[in-house]
Specification:
Elements lengths: L1 H9 L2 E6 L6 H12 L5 E7 L4 H7 L5 E5 L8 H8 L9 E5 L16 E7 L6 H4 L1 H5 L3 E5 L4 H4 L3 H11 L4 E4 L8 H20 L1
Parallel strand pairs: 1-4, 1-5, 2-3, 2-4, 5-6, 6-7
Bound molecules: magnesium ion (MG) and zinc ion.
The site of zinc ion has 3 residues, from loops.
Length: about 200
Amino acid sequence: ERNRGFFQARGLLVLNFLSSPGSGKTSFIREAVRALQPKLKAGVIVGDLATDNDAQRLRESGAPVVQITTGTVCHLEAEMVARALKQIDLNGLNLLIIENVGNLVCPASFDLGEDLRIVLLSVTEGEDKPLKYPPMFQSADAVIISKIDLAEACGYDRETALANIRRVAPRAQVFETSAKTGQGMDAWCRFIAQQQQQRSSSTSA
Ligand code: MG
Ligand code: ZN
């Protein structure tokens, strides 16, 4: 709640990105941050058990990035985010993206104070992930199907994947994207810009 109040007071739209490891969170965020500029200026907080590899990749977008290394902890907690916020200059930013630890189970149970939960499902993972890991998908405000450029090579069954997402997360908006080719990025950027506008108008009201 303290994080949420802090974000609201600053008019920051905050996204919590969740998925299994290797679904393409980091690449998606890097490309999304680039595509949203200059309209939206983002900062990124990224969590992993070890290394700052993802922070380095995310910095290629030009955004300020803070890496949290969790050691043995398999999810981010609100307190870790609060500490990381002290290392980031939020002036001029209107979007904060949190890349959670890759894990489809327990990060779902930890509220970081975010506005929206974004869950990625890559076409390489299998269409039944939403059925196998329902809490994660149930908590999603938006689901991003990533690596859509690999769909054919993976024998991805689009209708089944969409039906499974709808079954578990009927209200989530679904975006089919490729960070590599840019497919679906426009629709995603429009959605986020609209969400940010709502946030800033509710802050000034
Ligand atoms: Mg990553
Ligand atoms: Zn955990």
